[in-house]
Design brief:
With 117 residues, the protein is α/β, with parallel strands linked by helices. It has five helices and four strands. It is globular and about 35 Å long. It holds the Pfam family DUF488-N3i. This is DUF488 domain-containing protein. Keywords: Coiled coil.
Length: 117
């Protein structure tokens, strides 16, 4: 697998981003489609609305959020397989809108993608 990186969608796009994928269920505020420069938006791989609302970006809930999100991702094997295949070809940038750069779904998704299957 090539490189998988995570990046806030509010950060400027870069040539090194490779394939840019938004992994949020809802579109981030204040970002135009042009500025986002996305290659894909995979809403279905994002945490469910129920889980997203429960977590509410509370760092104290992150450990439990990760466990619950991993359970949800077990139902998304097709999408995960497609992302792993893309990562063999080029860098994947998993984009998210959260302000917290250490407690968000992209971190969990990156770990899951990089684990051996």
């Amino acid at each position: 697998m090539n490189k998988t990186q995570i990046k806030r969608i509010y950060d400027d796009p870069a040539q090194s981003d490779g394939y840019r994928i938004l992994v949020d269920r809802i579109w981030p505020r204040g970002i135009s489609k042009e500025r986002a420069m996305l290659d894909d938006w995979i809403k279905d791989i994002a945490p469910s609305n129920k889980l997203r609302k429960w977590f509410d970006h509370d760092p104290e809930k992150f450990e439990e959020f990760e466990k619950k999100y991993r359970i949800e991702l077990k139902e998304k094997e097709k999408e995960l397989k497609e992302l792993r295949e893309k990562a063999k070809e080029k860098t994947l940038s998993l984009l998210y809108g959260a302000k917290d750069t250490t407690h968000n779904q992209a971190i969990v998704l990156q770990k899951v993608l990089e684990e051996c299957h």
